[in-house]
Amino acid sequence: MSDSELLPKFDLHLVRKLMASLKPYTGAVVVSLVALLVSAGAELAVPILLQNGIDKGILQKDLAHLTLVSGTILGMILLGMVASFFQVYLLSRVTQDVMKDIRTTLFAHFQRQSSQYLYNHPVGKLVSAVTSDVATLSDFFNTLFTSLLKDFLVMLGVVVALFVLDAQLAFFTVLSLPPVLVLVAFFRIWSRGAFRLVRAQVSRVNAFLSEHLQGIAVVQLFGREKASREAFAKENEGLLHANLTELMVNAVFRPLIDVLWAVSLAFLIWFGTGQSLHHAVTLGVLIAFINLVGRFYQPVGSLAENFTLLQSAMAGGERVFGYLGEARPIPDRGTRPLSNAGQGTIEFENVEFRYLPDEPVLNGLTFRVEEGETVALVGYTGAGKTTITNLLTRMWDIDRGAIRFGGYELKEFRLDSLRRGIQSVLQDVFLFSGTIYDNIDLGRGLSRDRIEEVCRQVQAHEFIEKLPLGYDTPLNEGATTLSAGQRQLLSFARVLAQDPRVLILDEATANIDTETEILIQRALGELLKGRTSLVIAHRLSTIRRAHRILVLDAGRIAEEGTHEQLMEQKGFYYNLYKLQYEKGSSSE
Ligand SMILES: Nc1ncnc2c1ncn2[C@@H]1O[C@H](COP(=O)(O)OP(=O)(O)OP(=O)(O)O)[C@@H](O)[C@H]1O
Ligand SMILES: [Mg+2]
Question: Partner of 532 for a Cys bridge, out of 199, 222, 291, 344, CB 3.0 to 4.6 A?
Answer without folding.
Answer: 344
